[in-house]
Every structure is written in structure tokens, then in C-alpha cells.
Amino acid sequence: MLDSFLTVGEQVLILFVILAIGFVCAKTKLVNENGAKVMANVVLYFVTPCVIIGAFQREFDSTMLIKLLVSAACSFGILLFSVIIAQLIYRKQDKSRSTILKFATVFSNCGYMSLPLQQAILGDDGVFYGATFVAMFNIFVWSYGLITMKGKGDKGLSPKILLNPGIIGTIIGVILFLCSVELPNIVAQPINYMAALNSPVPMLIIGYYLANANLKKAFTDVWSYIAMALRLIVIPLITLFVLILCGISGKLLVSLIIATSAPVAAITTMMSAKYGHDTELSVSLVSASTLLSLVTMPLVVGLAQYLS
Length: 308
What we know:
Mean pLDDT: 86
Largest sheet: none
Order of helices and strands: HHHHHHHHHHHHHHH
Number of strands: 0
Strand content: under 5%
Number of helices: 15
Helix content: over 70%
Distance between the termini: 11 Å
């Protein structure tokens, strides 16, 4: 148990060292808001798809295909369970606040935080399973998340549900995997180089926003504590024991728990700003939960490794 905790803790701490560099860059004005947005766009549109495609570059294996389908089903179930919890817990809260609290509870930073950690701890297999969680995440963000942010007046689904880079990368990766297509080196090597940016660049971005966040709102509001407790501890632990009862184990189990135990998704702030909700609360939740995850993720993921 202690070895599992220390292994995960070391990897999380490495990511936080890079996050600290982003924090310093923000404080010293080496990176401004426009620079952070540009880096975020590069990660979203190029780095994340390359990570996913690279993870699927392997010879077709029916056993891995079954595990991929199981991962997709589990990911869907985890997100659906999170939605139900959020709808029940915050139903009596003020609309603008409840929207952010729901979003923060349901959506983890499964791209920026989870994929680098899955890569570091589990290798390509971890990203292979993690990619399906990212795909389900995007489906839920552009359906349930969009409806939640827009309000009851607009229930239409965005075409972005199919055009999101994460889903496009997953579709391409799955096709290559099913057909056992090995990309030529002139294509594969640039993909590998771009995928290598997935650990440092997202952490620099999070560090930048952390430097510019007001954490007071998250640490002085009881509902923020509830949202962070649900996101970082309650939902991951319930998920862990349910998955174990369902017979899920090994790298698949640990990969799913890494994705589920990640802090509040950075997209919470972007969606909040776009649709006129409590942006200050969203920034506080993203930043505070990221700090707390330095402690919670090693505990939860270490426990998952031990039990797996």
C-alpha cells in the first residue's frame, strides 16, 4: 500500500513541479493570458489527439478490444453516476451557483491531469483506456454540460459532440487499431513528438491560472468544499469499490480511477465565462481542487493500485 502511494505521489509531485514553473511564469509575466490560451489551444487541437492516436498504435488484439469496450462502458457509467449525484445534491442551490457546482462535480480534468499521469504510471496501456474516458467526457460535456450551462431553454445538442478533437483522435486511433495499421515513421514520429508535450504544457497552463486565481471563494464556501469532496474523494472511492465488485482490475481499474479522481476540469471556467455564470467560483474550484489533488490523488490512486 505504501509503495503504491509513494509511486503515485512521486508522479503527481513531478507534475506539480512543472505546474510551479507555470505559476512562476505567470507571476514574472513571462506568460500572459493570451499565451496561456494559445498553449491551451495547441494542447486541445493537436497534443491530445496525438497522445490518443499514439496510444492506439498497436497490433490488433481481441482481448484489448474487449477491455476497450469495457472501459467505454465503465466511463459512461461513472459519468452518468456523477450526473445523478450532482442533480440530487445541488437541486436547491441558486441557479448560477448550482450550474458551476454541478459541472465541477461531474467533470474531472481527465485530459490535462489524467493522461500525463496514466502515461507515467501505466504507459501506453493507461492512455489506451484513458482515451475512452476522454471520449465519453467530451460526449457528456457537449450534451449534459452544454444543456446545464445554457439552461432549460435550449436543449439542442451541439455538432461539436462529433467534431471535438478528443473524439476525432479517438475515432482515428480506434480505426488504426482495428485495422492494425502502422503509421509510417514520417507521420508517427511527429505524432510522438507532439504527444510528448502532453505532460509539461497542460501543467504550465494550470500553473498560470493557479497564479491568477482567488482561492478565498473556494475555501470559505461550504458548498465548494462539498463539490471538491465529491469530485476528489467520494465519487472516486465509490467508483473504485463498485468497479472491483464488477470484476474490473489491473491497469484498466487504475486508469479509470486516475481519470475519476482528477480535480475539477479546466473547461468549467471556459464554459462559465462563455455562458455568463459565476466565473470567479469556477476558477476557485479548479484551482483549489488542483492543489488538494496533490494529496487526494496519491491516496485514491495508490489505494486502487494496491487493490488491483
